DNA sequence: TATTTACACATTGTATACAATATACCGTAT
DNA sequence: ATACGGTATATTGTATACAATGTGTAAATA
């Protein structure tokens, strides 16, 4: 709460948004597990706010597909099934292909320079073997592509889809065997965009997502077996 | 409220969902105009509920992009700019292409039969010249394709995007000059899916959306000029 | 002993009360 | 006359109170 009051000075941020971010983070990192119930009073006490902001945050999580509502029973963390995840990936693939295609057409010199730098940062992050750093650098790289495609709506949608697989992608990134492949794929995407070669770019991003898809589905199978 | 209490007997539906649907309808039909403020007490009195369901409905409208929140000032109906609409259409085109592609691969005989029937219904609706009937028949036709593509997530996203242009699409449908074209385009999509011809299907849907895009953007220009 | 019913408790759904803040209008001073 | 400031009001943000409902447990009866 103290941080909140402090941030309040520059930009007012409703509690519901803070709660939303907090809960989303908890779900994506696995702190809140699939099937777990989100009980309002409990969360309100834990976060030191009333039920109202909690409820409003849950409404948003519901529309993002992170929780499901059972009438008169409240919210619970959405179960992620294999079908569910492949549905999401199917859409994500199409939107990622669109975004690199648009990036090829619309990227400007300054953005190309930043994309180059982001690629180098990613290379360095991989060298550290620190999964968290790698994940962050990966997000930065892709964010520049989204920015370059000049369609905020598209960016927002892809981001939302990507979020839903964060938890599993992290496991994927932790495996050092795929690091070299990841760098190569990024390199390929970078080159294609710089050359403004749409064919090559869509092919590269396709391979990139397809690799992740296989790993994520495999990871999902493991976790679902354990439970 | 009476309808609500009645429906309550079979399936409980929270007030927030009713309010959500009501407000969304009002925005999409233009009853609530872009820039108009959504004042909670006012809406609460008008709909005969308290502020709580109103607020929760507004949270959902916010995530659907139909309203924007101004801190400490509340919600207002989102302004739809030309850029905004072409951004949405850009994404919609990609997702519609994906959905017909998947439909070609996955549609079953029973769904083909219903799609045929939906096409005939659309033909008949056009003959009546009743814009409302045409719009409904159009939605039915496309809904079967979404169902056939077997990806509920995709359907939901396309539906959400399509919703945002309902208001303008309606003006488009009212023009009798384009009716023949509309029927032909539907025919082309139907044939392509029945033949499971992905190339033809994506091309057809592309043309279909592109036509709508031109009309919608033109309509948008007219309305924005008036204001 | 098993089953059914009733009651208590936990939890969501809804309404209202209270707090903080922005805006508009009016008065005063320069 | 205009500009600045203060106060009143309208509105959102947050908290709490009340209502409805589902669930679990215990007791009573077959």
What is the secondary structure topology, with strand pairs?
The structure is a homodimer of 227-residue chains.
Chain A: H1 2-7, H2 15-28, E1 37-38, H3 40-47, H4 51-63, E2 67-70, E3 74-77, H5 82-106, H6 109-128, H7 131-148, H8 152-163, H9 166-174, H10 179-194, H11 198-226
Antiparallel strand pairs in A: 1-3, 2-3
Helix pairs in contact in A: 2-4, 3-4, 5-7, 5-8, 5-10, 5-11, 6-7, 6-10, 9-11, 10-11
Chain B binds a DNA duplex (30 and 30 nucleotides) through residues 12, 14-16, 37, 39-41, 44, 49-53, 55, 71-74.
Any overview of this molecule?
The structure is a homodimer of 227-residue chains. With 227 residues, chain A is mainly α. Chain A folds into two domains: 2-77, Winged helix-like DNA-binding domain superfamily/Winged helix DNA-binding domain (Arc Repressor Mutant, subunit A, Orthogonal Bundle), CATH 1.10.10; 82-222, GntR ligand-binding domain-like (Four Helix Bundle (Hemerythrin (Met), subunit A)), CATH 1.20.120.530. Helix content of chain A is 75%, strand content 4%. The first copy, chain A, is built from eleven helices and three strands. In chain A, strands 1-3-2 form a three-stranded antiparallel sheet. In chain A, helix 5 (82-106) runs antiparallel to helix 11 (198-226), helix 6 runs antiparallel to helix 10 (179-194) and helix 10 packs antiparallel against helix 11. Chain A is globular and about 55 Å long. The two termini of chain A are 35 Å apart. Chains A and B meet through helix 4, helix 5 and helix 8 of A and helix 4, helix 5 and helix 8 of B. Chain B binds a DNA duplex (30 and 30 nucleotides) through residues 12, 14-16, 37, 39-41, 44, 49-53, 55, 71-74.
């Amino acid at each position: 709460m103290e941080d909140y009051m402090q941030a309040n000075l520059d930009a007012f941020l409703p509690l519901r948004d803070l709660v939303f971010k907090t809960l989303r983070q908890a779900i994506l990192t696995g702190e809140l597990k699939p099937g777990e119930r989100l009980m309002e009073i409990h969360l309100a006490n834990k976060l030191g706010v009333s039920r109202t902001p909690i409820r409003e945050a849950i409404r948003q999580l519901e529309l993002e597909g992170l929780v499901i509502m059972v009438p008169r029973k409240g919210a619970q963390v959405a179960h992620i099934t294999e079908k569910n995840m492949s549905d999401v990936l199917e859409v994500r693939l199409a939107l990622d292909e669109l975004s690199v295609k648009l990036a090829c057409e619309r990227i400007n010199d300054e953005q190309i320079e930043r994309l180059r730098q982001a690629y180098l940062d990613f290379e360095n992050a991989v060298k550290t073997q620190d999964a968290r750093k790698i994940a962050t650098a990966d997000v930065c790289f892709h964010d520049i592509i989204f920015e370059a495609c000049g369609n905020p709506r598209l960016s927002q949608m892809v981001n939302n889809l990507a979020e839903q697989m964060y938890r599993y992608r992290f496991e994927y990134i932790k495996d050092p065997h795929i690091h070299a492949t990841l760098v190569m794929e990024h390199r390929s995407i970078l080159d294609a965009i710089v050359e403004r070669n749409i064919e090559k770019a869509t092919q590269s991003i396709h391979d990139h997502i397809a690799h992740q898809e296989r790993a994520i589905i495999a990871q999902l199978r493991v976790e679902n077996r354990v439970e």
